[in-house]
Amino acid sequence: AQTVTQSQPEMSVQEAETVTLSCTYDTSESDYYLFWYKQPPSRQMILVIRQEAYKQQNATENRFSVNFQKAAKSFSLKISDSQLGDAAMYFCAYRSGADKIIFGKGTRLHILP
Amino acid sequence: GAGVSQSPSNKVTEKGKDVELRCDPISGHTALYWYRQSLGQGLEFLIYFQGNSAPDKSGLPSDRFSAERTGGSVSTLTIQRTQQEDSAVYLCASSSGTGSFQPQHFGDGTRLSIL
Questions:
Q1: What are the chain B neighbours of A91 within 8 Å (beta carbons)?
Q2: In angstroms, how far is CA B114 from the centroid of its own chain?
Q3: A45-74: buried (b, 16+ CB within 10 Å) or exposed (e) per residue?
Q4: Which end of chain B is more exposed for a tag (fewer CB within 10 A), N or C?
Q5: If DSSP codes are grouped into helix, strand and coil, which group holds residue B70?
Q6: Tens digits of per-residue pLDDT, A42-100?
Q7: Rounded CA gap, A29 and A19, in Å?
Q8: In the prediction, which pLDDT does B51 show?
Q9: What are the backbone angles phi and psi of residue A67, rounded to the nearest 5°?
Q10: Are A103 and B109 an interchain contact pair (Cβ–Cβ within 8 Å)?
Q11: Sign of torsion, CA B98 B104 B107 B112?
Q12: How many angstroms away from the CA of A19 is the closest CA of chain B?
């Protein structure tokens, strides 16, 4: 069965600094998709970034980028120039085919002013 | 509407009562998901509807939980004989069924409190 592991329950970063959130997953599939979602205190889940497994190039969305290491089954999220509005729970997620999406347990990110 | 709509946003009920939570997905989205999120925890998958296929009910925690999706659109999650451990935020999400790259769009959730 596929699993998604986020080993950092909480992290803190100084405003304007860079932080990396870890995510590893386990699968026997070769074609799948990975996502990072953000959940601020308002509890609305917001898609941050997504990656197709067959693409070697790491996805980037403004200050957010990923380091996708397919062989290592690692999918970390890097947030550059951290802002106070980045404070939230961040969830890593996996999906293969038409199956349900599997979420990690999340990492709570604190931004220190 | 433009997004996934859930109602009610908050529900307080007494232990033992039945509750119904509603989800109105984005128009045209064929996939619909229900999740449960306990305070400060991750998302616990409950059930997944995809088009006309039989739903994936593998995440339902007990037979007190059921869900249906009428006409391929609105879904109702029903919890019978509620228990205190059912207290959580129940999140609904929908996605376009045309390819697994499509992300899920979430509603704001229903916060359920069992007294």
A1: 42-43
A2: 17
A3: beebbbbebeeeeebeeeebbbebeeeebe
A4: N
A5: helix
A6: 778 899 999 999 888 999 999 999 999 999 999 999 999 999 999 999 999 998 876 77
A7: 29
A8: 85
A9: -115, 100
A10: no
A11: positive
A12: 21
